[in-house]
Amino acid sequence: MLRLPPFDFHTPGSLAEVLEIVAGEGPETRVVAGGTDLWPNMKRRHQRAERVVSLMAIPELAGIHAHNGELALGSTTTLEDTVRTRVVAERFPALARAVASISSPPLRNMGTIGGNICVDTRCTYYNQTEEWRRSIDYCMKEKGTICWVAPSSPRCWAHTASDSAPVLCALGARVEMKSKQGERIIPLTDFYRDDGIEYLDKAANEVVTRILIPDESDSTHCRSSFWKLRRRGSIDFAVLSVAAAVWTDDGDRVTDARIYLGAVGSRPLPVTGLAECLEGKVLDEETVSEAAALARKTATPMDNTDFQAQWRGVMAARYTEAALGEIAGLEPRALPPPHLL
Amino acid sequence: MAEPIESDQQEEIRDEPGRHIGQPFRRVDGRAKVFADDLHFPRLCHLKLVRSTVPHAKIEKIDFSAATEVPGYLGSLTGRQMPKPFGILPVSQDEHALCIDKVRYVGDPVAAVAATSEEAAYAAALLVDVEYQPLDTIDSVDTALDEERDRIHDYGDGANVHKRVSMRFGDVETGYAEADLVLEDTFFYEGNTHLAMEQHATVAVAEDEDRVTVFSSTQTPHYVHRALAKVLELPPSRIRVIACSNGGGFGGKSDIFNHEIVAAKMALELGRPVRITLNREEIFYCHRGRHPTLMHLRTGLKKDGSMTAQHLRTALDGGAYGSYGVASTYYTGALQTVTYDLPRYRFDGVRCFTNKPPCGPKRGHGTPQPRFAFEVHLDKAAQQLGLDPADLRLRNLAEPGSVTSNWLQLGTVGLRRCIEAVVAGSGWRERFGKLPHGRGLGLACGSYLCGAGLPIYWNHMPQSGVQLKLDRSGGVAVFCGEAEIGQGSDSVLAAVVAEVLGIELADIRLCVADTDLTPVDLGSYSSRVTLMVGHAAHQAAERARMLIAKAVARRLDVPLERLVFAERRVFDAADPEQGLSFEDAVTLAEAKWGTLGTTGSYTPPRAPGKYRGAGVGPSPTYSYSAAVIEVEVDPETGLYRPVHVWIAHDIGRSINPVLVLGQVEGSIYMGLGEAMMEEQAFRSLPRHLSSALVHKTPSLLEYKSPTFHDMPPVTSYLIEDPDPLGPFGAKEVGQGPLLPIPPALANAVHDAVGVRIDQVPIHPHMILKALDEKGRGRQARYGPAAFPEIDFGETLIVPTPAEGGDGRALDDPEKRKAHDMVGETGTMSSRDEALKAKDRALTTK
Ligand SMILES: Cc1cc2nc3c(=O)[nH]c(=O)nc-3n(C[C@H](O)[C@H](O)[C@H](O)COP(=O)(O)OP(=O)(O)OC[C@H]3O[C@@H](n4cnc5c(N)ncnc54)[C@H](O)[C@@H]3O)c2cc1C
Ligand code: SF4
Predict the structure, then answer these.
(1) Which of A211, A128, A204, A214 is nearest to A162 (CA)?
(2) Cβ(A127) to ligand 1 under 6 A?
(3) CB proximity list for B323: less than 8 A, separation 6 or greater
(4) B826-838: b or e for each residue (b if 16 or more CB lie within 10 Å)?
(5) pLDDT tens digits along B7-32
(6) What strand order describes the sheet that includes B102-103?
(7) Which residues, 6+ apart, have CB-to-CB distance to B801 below 8 Å?
(8) Touching check for A39 and chain B: CB below 8 Å?
(9) What does the mean pLDDT of chain B come to?
(10) Is there a shared CATH topology between the A61-119+159-217 domain and the A223-340 domain?
(11) Which of A228, B191, B262, B834 has the most beta carbons within 10 angstroms of its beta carbon?
């Protein structure tokens, strides 16, 4: 079996203690929540830590609360608890669907929503054991100098892997972080950077405490949808996901629309020009196809996950049609992925 | 079995339901299984192999100095300490326990370290510094055929070709001339791996400086035993191999693996028990799975669908070592003739060495690839001839009891009933070709061996042996070398003995797969165990029954023939009250004969083929299967989903229908995995930057195999028609039902959206591409463009039975003998001698 390397493990009972430990310790110290991402990565030695601090013994970090219409997801709320919380399922069905699609039941029992938005970017040249990566002389994301996916590129193209992130971005969520220096709240879209290595705007000493979903995405005039493409009906990460949120007026005319694509870029990619394209129009076959064409242009699928990259690009259009079509109540066109059946 | 004794003949079929045979019963090994990784011993230490990180290179230097500093480090080994080569086939003794002077693929073991904990062993292994001097990377059949490149091995058939095979049975050209349609197709079947849940593990316990016990997850303890003796340079009597319960094998545990030998050596060196459990990635490197195979078929058919001739060419990417590869190559051609009558047949095959983990036998060994090609090819033929694909197959069925054009002796052929069952079950006649766009049905068939006719090394001994020990306790101990790999072979063994002696499964104590204690059985491969062990157990049990019956007949004063063994009693058929409990009957026999023990053994019947290569393909009899798959395809995306599978399998007779169904359903699952997603695929990096060649996805997350969600509902039909050549009429089920699955899926996709996908796995982008081609008025197909020009060597010309042949090739046998490689453990050319001896054995019996 692959074994973890040795490290010191801390389980403080208060956030203050955590913030104390992570303050100024640099990258040798990491926090862990469910560990479903960190432990496999440490076993494969592409993430390391001398010291790991668990967040799981801090009661106030877990739980879901609503106030002033805003929904606050505590960062260590497990994925399973997130799905099972009625207010999430009722008010944000797309989020519930996205979280329910993550991996498999055992991982959803361990994995957390905070861990999910921080989950490392992925690439089949990177998510490999130490020995395997030696065989390709490593790559830019860890120890190496070159990106094997795009050898002439100066950057890493590892793709965002979180299923909740594109939905939360579409819903306009914000993220709350705390450190010894204080606290800050930023839009989730700013939390992500377009880089496979430095993919988060988060310092090593900052801990994600809450995710805040605004009231505005919970009106009768906002409908959202999430479509995830993957090989199998369980376990697999997305190779493409489409999270759509559309706001309409009383006459079903679009007032605002956002689509974020997962797994086809290093961050959840906003489909550019979407609001302009749809504003004032009713969602029908034609407007949906126009939006799909924009999604196709936005996606930058690389050959670093399952399925042929070019086909994933085509699928960005098809799944955008499917997601918007679902919102508009159009006749479904694409074969539904198994987890939706 | 409520029936009087007649003789101890093993061929007799008992058709009526038995107490155990034919009844669903709980498997006898179901609880408290012990796997090799569960074993613990005092002072146990842990072994880790250091594996090559380069695809092809000379080893310049191995430096352990940093590794020795790791706390807990105990010792190391290199290849120089185990210089003797090994390999599963006598003709391919090309492996070393640890590489000696060169490495041949990323993952090839170069060194080993032992430590007091698994963590320390891994830490030390990462610190072993190996310097390499690179050689050319051979990454495909194409590069392997290139004479200019560095050779991976210094033996074989030139360049990086391991084996060239060419044989012709009958005048193929005449066949084409007689045909109304001559169809040509090129197909590709990607490699894939076994993916057994249990990761290979070995525990070696040294009992003295020159005595060692090796517990291992292996399908073939006997072959491991032989290889250990050779490489450790110890007499076999000092080595004991025990195959623990296996958590699945599928052919992936039927080679001898480096870690098994190294663990034994390390245990002897350190004088303490050693354990190694491979991680999942290492299992992708052990591999021995499906050969990626490029195929070309040319078949002549008459208007009515009957076949006049076929020429099959195959090119196998074998990976870095021989393994079973010579047999695999022959197997890509050998069984084409068993399903349908092929009056004239030509086969050319080539296996190449490449710098990848070695390929070998996976469920269906070498035959799923050409079966895929053949069945898709036939679907196209039916389309072109305007025939129903089911009718085309029914017209060509192989004749029961016939000898095929390539000299295979068939037994019963249940294929007609199989086809009829799935045609009826799926509503084929009403629905094929008539479903709405996006829905389709596909049909395909297959057939498989019930045990390879010949052992892996030539010898004159039985292939399976069973011993029984009976005593006054009334319990029966059964000793047999067979290895339980999860398929239920223990249960079959127990059921056969219990049936014959009229006792319960609970009265049986099994002792299996222990080279010190059990008689040799060659192992769990080639679907041989039920048939061969079943026969041997049957014979041993009949002999025991006779000993008991003689004692009881005397006591009761009843004629021997009237005695019945049933319900744990031995009694008079004419007066059932008159009898003894089984326990008392055994007590009587023990008093009469002394200590009781019997043996049984089995040697398959002699095959009629006598040409070089005729050793691959013969079997006592063959199983048959047919399947229909219904598929849903989305023409907009190429995404598809099998919605139902109907399958019928000619089992002869089920010993335990629950186990049979388990194998059928498991085969469908595995077949769908190969057809839809599984790929043992490799990555090269840009040539000007790197010579790396790595496995793309050596993990259970990224190597895609279906989950529960992806498995469609299944309807299975067991076709029971006892075959006189099987024990109680039984045939195999472990491998055959996989064969029709990949082609049935491809055929169904065609029925759904009208495009041909001539390769597996079928990815959605291929369907989309083919639909796009179709839309542009081009060929509605996705698949390999062409089959390369390959020199297959001199063609062996073997006249068919219809041509009055005698099973021999036309060319000079002396020339052949010289051509064959002579291995230390046997040679291909000593085959004639082995056959002669077997003839003698049969006539003296
Ligand atoms: C087989 C498998 C399949 C998977 N499939 C999916 C999938 O389909 N979709 C998907 O989205 N994910 C998937 N995952 C990834 C993972 O399980 C989830 O993303 C999960 O939500 C991660 O949460 P966690 O609490 O376990 O994270 P952890 O492993 O504990 O942490 C992940 C990272 O975030 C950091 N972190 C965690 N919490 C905080 C915090 N509060 N503040 C600051 N940093 C923090 C950690 O330091 C670490 O770097 C899969 C993982 C595996 C092993
Ligand atoms: S995208 Fe390039 S740099 Fe980033 S992980 Fe993959 S190979 Fe490495």
Answers:
(1) A211
(2) no
(3) B87, B88, B89, B92, B255, B288, B358, B359, B360, B361
(4) bbbbbbeebbeeb
(5) 444 444 455 668 999 999 999 987 77
(6) B102-103, B57-63, B129-134
(7) B403, B405, B407, B608
(8) no
(9) 94
(10) no
(11) B262
Tokens found for residue B115 = 């430590």
pLDDT value of residue B43: 97
Helices (H), B432-511: 489-501
B124 touches chain A (CB under 8 A): no
Contact B768 A127 (CB under 8 A): no
User: CA B650, CA B658: separation in Å to the nearest integer?
Assistant: 15
Dihedral sign (CA A42, A46, A52, A53): negative
Structure tokens belonging to residue A12: 């403080």
Nearest CA in chain A to B117: A3
- pLDDT score recorded for residue B15: 53
Q: Domain spanning A223-340: which superfamily?
A: CO dehydrogenase flavoprotein, C-terminal domain (3.30.390.50)
With a CB cutoff of 8 Å and minimum separation 6, the contacts of B630 are: B426, B439, B440, B441, B642, B643, B644, B645, B748
Phi, psi for residue B301 in degrees, rounded to 5: -135, 150
pLDDT digits (tens, 9 = 90+) for A271-322: 999 999 999 999 999 999 999 999 999 999 999 999 999 999 999 999 999 9
A203-223 burial, b for 16+ CB within 10 Å, e for fewer? eebbbbbbbbbeeebbeeebb
Residue for token pair 């839009």: A187
- Residue B543: Cβ-neighbour burial (10 angstroms; 0-12, 13-18, 19+): middle
Query: Which single residue is written with the structure tokens 């005319």?
Result: A253
Instruction: Quote the CA–CA distance of B463 and B531 in Å, as a whole number.
Output: 11
Residue A148: list chain B partners with CB under 8 A. Answer: 685-686
Of A172, A198, A195, nearest to A185 (Cα)? A172
Residue B271 Cα distances to A170, B39, B235, B263, angstroms: 64, 17, 18, 11
Whether the upstream peptide bond of residue B722 has omega within 30° of 0, thus cis, is no
Q: Please give the domain boundaries of chain B with CATH numbers for all domains.
A: 464-602 (3.30.365.10), 796-843 (no CATH)
Q: From CA B698, how far away is CA B414, in angstroms rounded?
A: 40
Please report residues of A whose CB lies closer than 8 A to that of B637.
Answer: 314-315, 318, 334-335
Residues near A65 by Cβ (< 8 Å), separated by ≥ 6? A71, A72, A74
Spatial distance between the Cα atoms of B165 and B350, rounded to a whole number of angstroms? 6
What is the C-alpha to C-alpha distance for residues B191 and B139, in angstroms, rounded to an integer? 14
Beta strands per DSSP E along B93-180: 102-103, 109-115, 129-134, 161-169
Q: Which two tokens stand for residue B221?
A: 């303890």
How would you classify the pairing of strands B759-760 and B181-189?
Answer: parallel
Measured in residues, chain A has a length of 341
ipTM over 0.90: yes
Task: Name the nearest CA neighbour of A173 among A264, A82, A237.
Answer: A82
C-alpha B26: how far from chain center: 25
Domain ranges of chain A: 61-119+159-217, 223-340
Mutation for testing the B interface, residue in A44, A122, A136, A235 having most B CBs under 10 Å? A136
Q: Report whether pLDDT(B756) > 60.
A: yes
CATH number of A61-119+159-217: 3.30.465.10
Q: For B505-544, how does the pLDDT look when each residue is reduced to its tens digit (9 = 90+)?
A: 999 999 999 999 999 999 999 999 999 999 999 999 999 9
pLDDT tens-digit readout, B308-320: 999 999 999 999 9
Ligand closest in space to the Cα of A151: 2
Is beta strand B239-243 parallel, antiparallel or unpaired with respect to B211-216?
Answer: parallel
3-state secondary structure of B115: strand
Q: Distance between CA B738 and CA B161 in Å, rounded?
A: 29
Q: What is the pLDDT of residue B828?
A: 36
B69: how many CB neighbours lie within 10 A of its CB? 11
